[in-house]
Amino acid sequence: MPILNRVAEMHDEVTEWRRHLHTIPELLYDLHQTSAFVEDKLRSFGCDEVVPGLGKTGVVGIIKGNLGDGPTIGLRADMDALPLDEITGKPHASQTPGKMHACGHDGHTAMLLGAAKYLAETRNFKGSVAVVFQPAEEGGAGAKAMIDDGLMDRFGISRVFGMHNMPGLPVGQFAIRPGPIMAATAEFTITIKGRGGHAAMPHGTIDPIVIASQMVMALQTIAARTTDPIDSIVVSVTKFHAGDAYNIIPQTALLAGTIRTLRTEVGEKARERMRAICEGIAAANGATVDVHIDVNYPVTYNDPGETDFAIDIARDVAGEPGVHTGVNPVMGGEDFSYMLEVRPGAFIFAGNGDTANLHNPSYDFNDELIPHGISYWVRLTETALAR
Asked: Do residues 233 and 260 touch, judged by C-beta distance below 8 A?
C-alpha cells in the first residue's frame, strides 16, 4: 500500500496542525494548550471516547471499528517540547523563548491525529484502536504516569506501537530492529569533598579538582575495561563544577553525567563500578565522596513477533528497499520503553530526511514525512484488527 489517496488529501491540513503545535511548545507535563488542541480535534473527529487528564495531561481517544468486536491496540505519540531557543527563523517557529519542538513531537502528534481522523471516518476494522497522546517523554516518564493511571487496563490495550522521526534517514523510509532499539538511561551526580585552601599552598589542602579529574578518567574504564566489548555502553561526564577564584583551592567539586546501556545487567554493573571507583579514589586522596545515581528509562525492547509485523506494514507503505530491518540501536533513551515492558509491541523510526539532528536549535520536523507516517498507522491498525 503506497500513500493512501485520502491521506494525501489531508497532507496540507495536518501540516497546518503540526506547524501550529510547533509555535506553542510546552514542556514535560505542562501541556495545557497542546492537550486541549488534541482533545478538541479528537472530539471533532467523532471518536467514541475521548479521555483527557490521563498521566496528568495525557489524552486518549478510542475509535471503534465497524466490523464487530475484537481486541484493542494502542498507537502512541509524544507531545512535549525541549528547553531550547529555536534558531530556524521559520514562519512557524516557536513563539515562546526558551522552548522549542526540537525532537519532532509536534510532528508525531500531528501524524497520529491525522491517522485518528482517517480511522474515525472509515472504521474498516474489528475491535478498537486507542490513540494515545503522551506528556513528558523528555525526562518526565510520562508513559509510566499514563500506565500508573490505568492506561492499559482501562482501555484493554493488548499491543502497543510507537514511532519516532529519524534525521538522516530519507523521507519515505523506515528503520527498525527486534530486541533492544534504544538504551536504558541513568543520571549520576558525584560530589567530592576535600579541604580547601590557598592555591599557593596546595600541600595543606585536599584538592577536590585533582581528585575529580582522576575520577573523570577512571570512569572511562567502565566501558574500556569492565564491560564486555560486545555490549554497548556509554558513560559520559557532562558537568564539572568547582571553585570560584584564581587563588583558592575549593572545598568541593561536582561531577555529573549519564550512563546508557542496552542490557539491564550491564547498567547494574556499571553503577556498581562507578561507586567503587569514586569511593576508592576519594579514600586514596583523603577525601569523601557522595555518589547519587538516578535510574531512569529502561531499555526500549521490541518484541520480535511484533517487530516482524511492523516490518511487513512498513514494507506495504515504503516497499521492501525502503525498510531497514537491522538498524543499529540508538543510545538515546525513550520512555515508550515503559509501555513495551507491560505490553508486546514495536517502536519504529521514520525518515526525516536531510535535516538538523534531534535536540538541535536548528531542527524542524519535515512535513513531507506526514503522509508516510499516517499511512503506516492506518495500515497497521487495519491489518492488526483485520476481520
From this structure: yes
DSSP string, 147-212: HHTTHHHHHTEEEEEEEEEEETSPTT-EE--SEEEE-EEEEEEEEEE-B-EETT-GGGSB-HHHHH
Q: What is the pLDDT of residues 18-28, one digit of tens each?
A: 999 999 999 99
* Residue corresponding to grid cell 529519524: 166
The Cα diameter of the chain in Å comes to 83
Residue 75 pLDDT greater than 70, yes or no: yes
User: Cell for 157?
Assistant: 490495550
How much of the chain is in helix, strand and coil states, percent to nearest 5? Answer: 40, 30, 35
Contacts 24+ apart (CB under 8 A), 198-202: 198/247, 198/248, 198/249, 199/246, 199/247, 199/248, 199/249, 200/247, 202/249
Residue pLDDT, tens place only, 279-311: 999 999 999 999 999 999 999 999 999 999 999
What would the mean pLDDT of 162-184 be, rounded to a whole number? 97
Q: Rg of the chain over CA atoms, in angstroms?
A: 24
User: Please, are residues 79 and 174 in contact by the beta-carbon 8 Å criterion?
Assistant: no
What's the pTM value of the predicted model, to 2 decimals? 0.92
Domains of the chain and CATH, by start: 5-182+299-384 (3.40.630.10), 184-295 (3.30.70.360)
Checking phi first, is residue 236 left (phi over 0); if not, alpha (psi -120 to 50) or beta?
beta
